[in-house]
Structures are given as structure tokens and as C-alpha cells.
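Extended Data, panel c. Modelled sequence:
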Amino acid sequence: MAKTLTGRGVRVLLCIICSLAVIANGIGWWLQQATRDAAPLVVVYAHEKGQQSAAGSHWARLVSSACDCDIVWRDVTPDSTESRAVYGLASYQGNPELDGLSVPDVFVSFSQVTGPDTIARGYADDYLDFHRYLDRMPNVTRYFAEVPQAFVAAQRGDRSIRSIPGDSGEDYDGSMAHMFINRAWLERLGLDVPTTWDQLTDVLRAFRDGDPNGNGEADEIPFAIRPTENNDPGGTETFEPDGWQLLLNSTGTPTQLNEQAGQNLFAGMDSSVKDISASNAVRRVGDYLADLASEGLVPSESFARSYALKQANEAMREAMQSDGGGVPSDSGGAGSSTLVGSTFVGTTFAEYESQLSAPIPLVGVAFAFDASAFEPNEDQYESISIPAERDGVQPTWDRSGRVRFNLNGVSVRANTRHRDDALRVVDALFDESVSLAQFYGEEAVDITHEDGRTMVSVQGDGTYPLGYGRAFVGWIRPGTIIVGDKPRERYVAADKPYREIYRRMGADGVFPMGMYLPATSGTGIGSVTDQWLAEQVCNASVPYDRDKAWNAYVRAQSEDSARAGQRREWQREYDRYMERDKTLR
């Protein structure tokens, strides 16, 4: 006769079943973790399409050898799904566009993840703090010891290092923009290089009237200015470091258009953050540009889009304040909302760049990174120190180190299960051989060593299109002798007239690289400052009350509590940066 289970027996059986379930779950968890631990390290390297692939390269194998680990290299180019779908580390969680892609452990030059602005906007603790592990990274430690600027640039205000920048070498320790003049035009017209605004005005008049390009047409643009507003349908650019604001340096007011604070017309002077957006220097630059525009020496078309936006915004405010509100009427003028919304007035960025590179030279003076902006006539242009506002004024210049250091450096995900391997990979990127192969490509250079110095000879036409160039994450060591590097030679020539200004300025007016706030409103392209200037320039040839417009602009800036709050935030962040412990340990 079968026996039934007693209550005690049932409980024992249930306990056994539960225990087996717990054991099974534990085994499943252990197997899952073991699978993750056994999975290879994933490294993504972001670069332009057409450049060398990290995957399969000899230098990547050197990194794998130094790591002594299995690595999956994933190349990310601007047209890839990963580039389009990722806006920070959180993008990898539950994103259907990235299904099937392993979450990377190491991110190299991937601005959407490794950029200082991205880290500032996100959660810094999601990134490994390299500062805690420098004793395991001999290449990086040597890099920081020999290039203190790199260590300072890498450190956040709390001393943590969430991204390590690449260093293109001392040759690139300068500005993102320079003033260029057409030397051939000067010689043809018997003119000297201008050193003051008055002299510059005389030169620009001669460029306008003297047919210096010799084609018999009045097509010269004496002084080309980059458009103040992104005027390109579907365009994404929001700021460029070669805008009209550079003329502030003629007054002795330093700019820093490469950094977030400087882009918003805050300046670091005498250990404090100044709001220069409504300064007398800005007023004088605005008056000078309007005077030039009134004579046709700078094109008002570069400011037309900003002026149209200003008019549209004013019409909208008036409509909202009127009885019953409603949509502002379309006057049909340059600033109507219809034109702003559907028609692109003025000069586009693409048209501006075409002006600089026209087959027959059209431009007398312009700001540019180097002379390649003027191809095919780059041999006619040379960089000059910006003219002073007047005799007795010592010009400054815009500088931050962004040309030399790639702040979209390398970062490691904090919760990686391959931390030690990831640290070895990061350190290997700063090995000399790996660094040079990243920068130039593996076939473009001949590398020799003599008397403790490295000599690099760039082959072919000297342009190394397969290399990552300044977008690499490695280290060109001080004292490295490099010959045949055409982009480097062009940059050195462009920056040469400004080196004495840098020495005279020292660190005054230079914000620390990578000093970011989570969010700010812009005073760069599309800002109210641009709109004030644009209205003045576009009305330069008609009766216009500059004083009234300036006073209204200054009043609006002084009443902008959000901007005042930003200045205080920048001051706190600046103090935190300057007071942090900057010793390497």
C-alpha cells in the first residue's frame, strides 16, 4: 500500500527542490560570468572614413601583444551606425540600433563618449579614473611627466582622469586660427604688411580698388569673414574658432574660441572670469567692422543670416505682446520669419570656403588654420600677426592647446570586467612605435634611432592620408626629429608670427583645457552678440543709431540673470581647476 507524504516530508521535499533551484541559478550565474570573463576585450577606435583600420593593423597587434589578451577592434567612422546612434555610454543600453554589438570596454577618440563635454554632461563615475592606476601605466606616466600640459589637460577639477588626450607634439603648440594676407597682392600694389587697424584699412581699400588679382574685374573680397550663422540647409556646425571675435585680440583682449567658456565670450584674466560680451572692446570691434562694411571692405552677406534671425525674433516678440498674439506678419524683408524659415539668406559656410579656395584668388585677408585653406593658391598667402587697434596697443592671440592635444582621448568603461587588460591596452597606445603608426599610418614613414633620438622621415607627398594625424591617441615625444611632414610644416609656418605673443602673454587669458560645464547658452554663432553686430554691419551704409543699438544690447546683457549665473559657475569651476592638486602621483 502506497504511503502518502507527511507534512514534514513535503517540507523536506520543497527544501530540496528550492536548494536545487538556487544551485542551478548559481551555476547559471557563474556560467554567465565565466562567459563574460572569457569574452575578448572590445576596443572601438573612431576615425574618418578612408583612414587606416585599427582592426588587422600591425600596431593593433603590438597592442594585443603588450596586453597579452584577446582584443576585438571595432572601427567607427562617421557613416557607421555606431557613430550615429551613440551619444554617451548610456546609448549602449537597450538601443535597438546597436543590437548584436558588444558594449566596448575601451573607447579611442570617440567624441560622443570620450570628449570632455560629453563626460561633463554625463556621469563621470561611469568612466574609469586613470589617476588611481598610473603606477600600472609606465608609458602614460612618462608621458605626463615629460609633458606636464597633457597631465593638466587630462585632470578634471576633482583630480580624476577620465580620458587621456593624444599629443601631436610641440610643433602644434599654438592656435586653431591665424590671420592670413595675400602677399602677392601686397607686392603687386607696393604695400607693406599692416600693423595697425588704420594701416589695415588702407591695405583693404587698395585691394578693393587696385585689381590685384589682375583679371580686370572688381571681384576682390578685401577681408573675408566667416559667416556668423550656420546658413547651410541640414548643416550641423555650431561654432568655428576663426570668426570675427578674433579681432578682439587687436585691442589686447585675449580670446579663447576653442574652449567652452571662451566660445561664450567669457575670458580668464587676472585669475578671474570676466564677461566680455558687452565690453568696450567688443563695441570697438563692432564699430570697426561696420566702418569696413560701409566701404565694401568686408561682406555684409557674412552677417545677413544673423540679422534675419534677429528681425524674426523681434517680430515674434511683438506679435506675442500684441492683443490676441498670433503669428508675426511677413514684411517680405530680409528678416521676415518666412525667409528665415525657408530661405537661406547671406553667405553659407560652404560658399565662404569656396571664396578662400577660388581658382583665381578673390580674398585679400582672412582667418584660417593654415595656408591650405587657400589652395590652389596657398603659395600666395602668408600668416601675419594681427594688427593692433592702434599704435601702443600690444595685441594678444587666441590659444588653448587644442591643436596639439586631442581631448577626445581614450576612456575605459568603469564597470568593465577586463579592467587590467584595458589599462594595458591604454598604456600600449602611448608606446612610441604604436603612437607613430597611429599618427602617420604604417607605410608612410621611415623611422630611425640615433644617439637616443627618434628621426621620422615622411614618405611620398608628405600628407599620410591613411594616418589619423592629430586625431590619434598617442604621444609624439619631445625632441623627435620629423622631416617631410607637410601638414606640420604648414602649421609651423602659420603659427610662427604668433609665438612671441604667446611668450609675452604667458598663461593670462588662457582657460584650462577641458574645463566644461554641463550646459551653457551660446554667445558664439547665432548668439545675441552676433545679432547685435550683424544688425550694425548690415545697416552700415544707411542711417542707423549705433549708440542706441549698443545701449539696448548692453542693457539686455546686464539684465540677463542666466548669463550672470553662468559667469559665477565658470568662476567656481575655474577656481576648482586652479586649486586642484596637480602633482603627478
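The chain has two domains: 41-172+404-479, 178-398+496-579. This feature is highlighted in the accompanying rendering.
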